[in-house]
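<instruction>
Derive structure tokens from the sequence
<entry> Chain with its tokenised backbone below:
===
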Amino acid sequence: MPGLPVRPAGPQDADELLRLRVAVLDGARLTDAWRSTFRDDMRARLGTDPHLLAYVVPADEHTLASCAIGIVYRGYLGPTHPTGLWGRVHTVATDPAHRRRGHARAVTAALVQALKEAGCGSIELRATEAGAPLYRSLGFGPLDGYMALRPGPQGWAR
């Protein structure tokens, strides 16, 4: 969005990215280990790992108003992945005090552009009901048929 100070996130933003990420997740379920792992990963990779991309709008000198975090994945070549690369938007979060000002649109648009520039042949995300209108307005559409397999609390079932 014109006028918003969108910038790439750097290692210095790790604590604020964690704060915003927790805000969109069920914070009660997140362990201290999860929180420190996420924060440490952001500190280590932002600005150095070309596969981890994040864009932010600062609220002030110390806090972030909004963020969008994505990953570039390498797969195989195919009709929907002509470069073998595809992107995934993992997090879009805006601090409640800064909502309804275009921040989520600005950081998401910047992230999508960066994923395209990184060579991603397609970009996916999982939309909440509240976020779906924004993503549709940016050109995303539903793609039926995807399912996920994830380990349970005790790990992978045998």
Remarks:
- The chain has a mean pLDDT of 91.
- The chain has one domain: 7-137.
